[in-house]
Amino acid sequence: MDTIRNLVHGAGLGLRRSFLHEIVDDAPDSVDFYEVAPENWINIGGRLGKQFRAMTERFPFVCHGLSLSIGSPDPLDERFVADVKRFMAAHQIKFYSEHLSYCSSEGHLYDLMPIPFTQEAVRHVAGRIKRVQDILEQRIAIENVSYYAAPGQEMTEIDFFNAVVAEADCDVLIDVNNIYVNSVNHGYDAESFLKAMPGQRIAYAHIAGHFVEAEDFLVDTHGAQIIDPVWRLLGKAYELFGVFPTLLERDFNIPSLAELLKEVCAIRTVQKNWEKQHEQRYA
Question: How far apart (Å, rounded) are the C-alpha atoms in residues 126 and 76?
Fold first, then answer.
């Protein structure tokens, strides 16, 4: 079975409707692949639907889900998973990822809530991930998420994350900004967390900006430019695990396409710099 690294490479961009009309006929060379939330596109028709189809016919795409609610106590929404499978097949989208969180409990919560870091939760979540993989007939990637409280915590965040992906036998979507945000909010060393991640499972990465509420409290908004410590952490990830596909997330305060592409190009620069250093080291 192909892995995502055989399907996409380089620097990616989360596709947003606000700039779709700008790129459908004049796509930027700096973007190697795109990512969409299937929930936002499954039922889209008309002009937007045609523009989206024109993009998926020409460029590599991946899916990043928002509402699978993999850690929820509610029954798994298998109808939604089947809808995602049909959507991916219709647009030849080869890969799907989701958050290690939940967003429903007897109704939609409209936010990504933290899963308790417990052995019971490991078994519960891993079983649901396996079921999703069975329905989709492929491995999925699970993303490390930002969180602001850890109710009922019995394990560290990294031990919980690693236990889930090992038991589920799934891939990893590494969110570099989430590691940095959590390291500040919960007082741990970001590089140590990064080093403990299962590098062999990393499919691709997200990088984004955040809001500084206070010196010791950051909010993962995807609504600002990426700061230097997060860029350095991405470089460290490449140093540890090699270069992997990396995507810019920007969900709020979306600037001009030109500004977005500057950060996409910055991802490519970090990737190329590491590759040059790696070549020189082993020349």
Answer: 12
Q: Which CATH number do you get for residue 183?
A: 3.20.20.150
252 closest CA partner among 219, 230, 229? 219
Domain span including residue 211: 4-281
Question: Could you read off the pLDDT of 139-158 as tens digits, one per residue?
Answer: 999 999 999 888 889 999 99
pTM passes above 0.70: yes
Q: What span, in angstroms and rounded, lies between the C-alpha atoms of 142 and 95? A: 12
CA distances from 252 to 175, 220, 223, 262 (A): 17, 11, 4, 17
- List the one residue out of 145, 174, 153 whose CA is nearest residue 246: 174
Instruction: State the angle between helix axes of 228-241 and 257-281 in degrees (0 to 180), rounded to the nearest 10.
Output: 40
CA distance 174 to 238: 12
In the block, which residue shows the tokens 């810019």?
248
Condensed to tens digits (0 to 9), the pLDDT of residues 212-260 reads 999 999 999 999 999 999 999 999 999 999 999 999 999 989 999 999 9
Which residues 6+ apart lie within 8 Å of 8 measured at CB? 32, 33, 60, 62, 95, 204, 245
- Our count of domains for the chain comes to 1
Q: Which two tokens stand for residue 161?
A: 């994350």
CA-to-CA distance for 121 and 126, rounded, in angstroms?
Answer: 8
CB atoms within 10 A of CB 146: 24
Between β-strands 96-99 and 61-64, what pairing exists: parallel, antiparallel or unpaired?
Answer: parallel
SS3 content of the chain, % helix, strand, coil (to 5): 45, 15, 40
Distance CA(229)–CA(19), nearest Å, equals 28
